[in-house]
Amino acid sequence: MEHKKIILFGGTFDPPHNGHMTLLSGAIETVQPDLVIVEPAGTPPHKRAGETAARHRAAMCECFCPLCGHLIIDDTEIRRAGKSYTVDTVRAMNERYPGAQLYFPMGSDMLLWFRNWVGYKELLRRLVIVAHVRAGEDEAPMRAFADTLRAEGGSVLFVKAAVLPLSSTEVRSKIACGEPIDALVPPSVADYIAAHGLYRQQGGAAKDKTP
Ligand code: ATP
To answer: Which of 69-73, 156-160, 181-185, 199-203 has the lowest mean pLDDT?
Structure first.
């Protein structure tokens, strides 16, 4: 089966939160994809390694399913040994879905960091970036930065959606402090975190003590 427009939504998702939901739903509205692939990271190159329980993060990503009828949670990065680079995943998706155009949603923090990604020039050829600006940040520098990527042959779209000033780090530290998170994450994520007792230790990612 060939898909014309595919959103590849990569992230650590430790845990997924309403900011991710807003970004992805805005990207879906803008792109009108044939398929959405949610790709939880294995060991992200720019974050500390080791403690994150991939199976919990992947399970919590089920919260994205209601956003699109054609959505899968893929485990390519989770199964990959060692460091996980987006460019490897994108190559794999291009092989798996020949002829499809990949769209990659990202927050402004990721956009400004993009030239530091391994293989960013290849990514510019293989992906359309779907960029979102976080609240409180000035949109003009993002648009100017996007123009410099376009000058290198890249394609950048902007998502027109409200942006919540929210991060997984904030969700984890609220849980560690015993504060409620119901306003920050979808109900299914809050239920999963409570059921599995995740993030109760300060600074703790989703630890997986089960074999
Ligand atoms: P952490 O706090 O652990 O660094 P995070 O909240 O930034 O995590 P990631 O899983 O690293 O979440 O992010 C996945 C993608 O979602 C990235 O492209 C990131 O820029 C984007 N993103 C994260 N938070 C938001 C938000 N509040 N609004 C829009 N996009 C976001």
So the answer is: 199-203
What is d(CA 120, CA 123) in angstroms, rounded to the nearest whole number? 5
The CB of 166 under 6 Å from ligand 1? The reply is yes
Q: CB neighbours of 98 closer than 8 A, spacing ≥ 6?
A: 2
Q: Is-contact 126 96, C-beta < 8 A?
A: no
Q: Residues 79, 125, 38, 52: is their CA dihedral positive or negative?
A: positive
The C-alpha R_g of the chain, in whole angstroms, comes to 17
Q: Which pLDDT does position 109 carry in this prediction?
A: 80
Q: How far is ligand 1, taken at its centre, from the CA of residue 171, in Å?
A: 11
Ligand 1 binding pocket includes 171 (Cβ within 6 Å): no
48 versus 35: the higher-pLDDT residue is: 35
Under the banding of pLDDT at 50, 70 and 90, the label for residue 83 is confident
The preferred substitution site among 21, 168, 174, 199 for testing ligand 1, maximizing ligand atoms within 8 Å of CB, is 168
Does ligand 1 come within 6 angstroms of the Cβ of 203?
no
Mean pLDDT of the chain: 88
170 Cα nearest atom in ligand 1: 2
DSSP state of 116: G
